[in-house]
Design brief:
Blueprint lengths: L16 E3 L6 E3 L1 E8 L2 E10 L4 E8 L5 E5 L5 E4 L1 E2 L5 E3 L5 E2 L5 E2 L6 E2 L4 E3 L4 E2 L28 E2 L7 E2 L5 H16 L5 H13 L6 H4 L7 H26 L8 H18 L3 H16 L9 H17 L8 H18 L13
Antiparallel strand pairs: 1-2, 3-4, 4-5, 5-6, 6-7, 8-9, 10-11, 11-12, 12-13, 13-14, 15-16
Helix pairs in contact: 1-2, 1-4, 2-8, 4-5, 4-6, 5-8, 7-8
C-alpha cells in the first residue's frame, strides 16, 4: 500500500505514523517531530504507540541529517546505524521509516523516497530523471540521475530535485565564489584572492548543521564566530577595492602577494586592537583552541584537509602553535596558502576537489 505521495507505508515496525513537516499529513500510528533546515526534515524524536504504552525514543543525526543512533528516555543507546557514502545502510537491516539524510526508506525495495522521485542508495542514482532543468552556469546537474552531484559527503538532495550544499546559505560561500572570480581576473599578478577564497570556504564549514561533528573548523565560541563574521564582511569590502585597483593597473609590482597579505592582516589587527582587552583575549583564545582541534575532522572535505595541511606546515616553520593574536602568524598563514596554490598549479580553489560550499 502507498500514500497519495507514493511513500510505502505497509509492514512498518511499531505500526508508526508519520507527520510530514511540509504538508502536515499523518498516516499509520506514530508522530515524528520534525524541524526544517535547507528544506531537509531534521528528525528530533519519535513516539511509538504500542498496544500497552507509548515508548518515546530519540534519534540522533549526523551533519547530513541521516539517523545514526537511537536512544531511550534513560539516554541508553538502543540502536546504531552505519551507511555507505551514498546511503546504503550497512547495519542494522533497513526498516521502513526515516534513514539516510532523513528520507523515508522502504525495507522491501531498499529504496529511499525523496519526495519527487525514488533513490537507490546501492548504486547512488535516482530511478527517474531530475525534474529540474540543467543548471547552465556550471552544468552541475547535467547527469539527470546523479545524486547530490556525486558528492554525498557535503551535499544533500532534500526533495529529489536539485542538490544543495549543507551550508549553501552561508555568506562565506557567496564570498568564496566572488573571490574565485577575482582570482580568475588577476591570477597573472597575484594568487591572493584564491587564498582568500580558500579561507572563507574554511570558515563556511562552521555553518554546516552539526558542524562540530564534521567540519574541519570545529566552530569557535559564539563571540569569536561573530567577530570573524564581521571581519570577513569588512575584509570583503576592502579586498573588492583592492581587486579593482589591480585589475585597472593601479596596483602591482614585486612581492604583490605578500604586500596584499600584510595589508589585509593589518586591517584585522586594527579590529583586534580596538576590542576591550578581556574580550580580545577571549576571542584569540577561542580561535586558537579551534586551530588546535582542527585535526579531529580534517577529512570532512578536501578543502578543509588542504587548509589544515597548510596550517601544519606553518606551525612546523614557527616551531610552535599558531597564535591568532599575532599579525605575523596570520601573515604566515596567508603567504603559505598562496605558496601552496602556486606550487600545486591550482587554477581554482577547489577545482575537482570536494566542494564544501
Amino acid at each position: 500500500m502507498h500514500r497519495n505521495d507514493l511513500q510505502r507505508v505497509v509492514d512498518h515496525p511499531h505500526d508508526h505514523r508519520f507527520l510530514n513537516a511540509t504538508s502536515g499529513e499523518a498516516s499509520m500510528n506514530s508522530i515524528m517531530r520534525l524541524a526544517s533546515r535547507f528544506g531537509l526534515a531534521a528528525l528530533l524524536g519519535l513516539a511509538a504507540i504500542t498496544s500497552n504504552a507509548t515508548v518515546t525514543e530519540y534519534v540522533h543525526t549526523d551533519a547530513l541529517g541521516s539517523i545514526v543512533a537511537v536512544t531511550d528516555l534513560n539516554r541508553a543507546v538502543i540502536e546504531r546505524r552505519e551507511y555507505e557514502p551514498f546511503g546504503e545502510q550497512l547495519s542494522p537491516a533497513v526498516q521502513n521509516g526515516p534513514g539516510y539524510t532523513g528520507h523515508a526508506q522502504d525495507a522491501a525495495t531498499g529504496l529511499a523516497y525523496m519526495q519527487q522521485r525514488y533513490y537507490d542508495p546501492s548504486v547512488g542514482r535516482f530511478l527517474s530523471s531530475d525534474p529540474d532543468p540543467v543548471e547552465v552556469t556550471y552544468g552541475s546537474n547535467a547527469n539527470r540521475y546523479f545524486y547530490a552531484a556525486s558528492n554525498p559527503y557535503s551535499a544533500i538532495d532534500p526533495n529529489g530535485r536539485r542538490c544543495i550544499s549543507l551550508n549553501s546559505d552561508s555568506p562565506f560561500c557567496a564570498r568564496r565564489d566572488i573571490y574565485s572570480a577575482f582570482d580568475r581576473g588577476v591570477s597573472g599578478s597575484t594568487r591572493f584572492f584564491a587564498a582568500a577564497a580558500l579561507t572563507v570556504e574554511y570558515l563556511a564549514n562552521a555553518d554546516i548543521p552539526l558542524a562540530n561533528l564534521g567540519a574541519g573548523w570545529l566552530s569557535p565560541s559564539a563571540e569569536a564566530d561573530q567577530f570573524l563574521r564581521i571581519v570577513s564582511r569588512d575584509l570583503f569590502t576592502l579586498n573588492g577595492l583592492t581587486f579593482s585597483q589591480i585589475y585597472e593597473g593601479f596596483l602591482g609590482g614585486p612581492r604583490l602577494d605578500a604586500r596584499l597579505v600584510s595589508m589585509e592582516q593589518t586591517a584585522v589587527q586594527e579590529r583586534l586592537d580596538a576590542l576591550p582587552e578581556q574580550k580580545r583575549n577571549r576571542i584569540i583564545d577561542s580561535v586558537n583552541a579551534a586551530f588546535a582541534r582542527r585535526g579531529l575532522a580534517s577529512n570532512f572535505s578536501e578543502s578543509d584537509a588542504r587548509y589544515n595541511r597548510v596550517l601544519d606546515r606553518v606551525e612546523e616553520a614557527l616551531g610552535r602553535a599558531i597564535d591568532f593574536g599575532k599579525q605575523s602568524d596570520r601573515e604566515a598563514i596567508g603567504n603559505a596558502l598562496i605558496k601552496d596554490l602556486r606550487d600545486s598549479g591550482a587554477c581554482t580553489v577547489t577545482g575537482t576537489r570536494i566542494r564544501s560550499c
